[in-house]
Amino acid sequence: MSRAKFQLLLTRHHLRTVLPGQPPFVLKCRVTVVDHNGHLRMRFPLAAIVMSVIACVHAGSWAPQSNDKSSPPPALAWLSTDQNFADVSDISNVKVDLRYASENNFLKRNVYGDFHQCFLHRIAAEKLRKAATELQEEKPGWKLLVFDCLRPRSVQEKLFAVVKGTTQQPYVADPRSGSIHNYGFAIDLSLEDESGRELDMGTGFDDFTPLSQPNHEREYLEAGKLTKDQIEHRFILRNLMLQAGFVQLPIEWWHYDALPKEEVKKRYKIVE
Ligand SMILES: [Zn+2]
């Protein structure tokens, strides 16, 4: 059917006024398809079209991506049953806000698609549980606010493709060698207090400036670029994580590895 030869006409509309003082609006109407000679080809209520579109969107067949956060996409479904990995979002004082599964990240785009789960290798998951238990005792009502967990290499490739050739490329590991996130041994996180407020750490997550680097904290405090409170907040997070057995990445206050990266790369497999 050539579109140029057909027209959609709104016919038999009914005007109703439903609010006092408001102009009438179209309550019901019918869509008619006529060919270039004006001959009737199809006629159906507009409501049927609207309902079909709503049904499509609701079923997800028309939506750009699924919002189902309870299970990973089919290619990664095995993570849910593999005993080497655990979804840590069930820990009561852990709040998962996967930034790459939203547009709230330095790329301003969702690169995770349908992948919304926070999986970690069971060794890392166990250490996170320890940190969460310790937080519960020290700061009841506070939460570990998690930004990133296991990142499959397929996602790392997408991420790298976006930054390749830009000034952001040095901040994203080349998928050929892999990031510790690709093994499920790294986690990016912050803290939320009992009122649900994200703690001020001096910079946001994925702020790739020297101000984010733990190894420069002392000089920035002395220079007045970081406040005592911001340093204190980082210390609370760091103490929890180090006591639970994590290793701090010296250039990102939010990034922790569950084991030294050399050991991870030698002993474990990348999640593709
Ligand atoms: Zn990280």
> Main β-sheet: number of strands, strand sense, barrel status?
5 strands, mixed
The span between the termini is: 44 Å
Identify the overall geometry. Answer: globular
The small molecules bound here are:
zinc ion
Helix/sheet category: alpha+beta
State the helix count. 6
| Overall pLDDT score | 80
What is the percent of helical residues? 25-40%
Q: Looking across the biggest beta sheet, what order are the strands in?
A: 5-7-8-10-9
CATH class of the largest domain: Alpha Beta
Uncertain residue ranges: 1-29, 49-68
Please tell me about this protein's structure.
With about 270 residues, this protein is of the alpha+beta class. The chain has 2 domains: about 5-60, no CATH class; about 75-265, 2-Layer Sandwich (Muramoyl-pentapeptide Carboxypeptidase, domain 2), CATH 3.30.1380.10. It is about 25% helix and about 20% strand. The protein contains 6 helices and 10 strands; from the N terminus they run E-E-E-H-E-E-E-H-E-H-E-H-H-E-E-H. The protein has helices at about 45-60, 120-140, 155-165, 215-220, 230-245, 260-265; strands at about 5-15, 25-35, 40-45, 85, 95, 120, 145-150, 185-190, 245-250, 255. The chain is globular. The site of zinc ion has 5 residues, from strand 8.
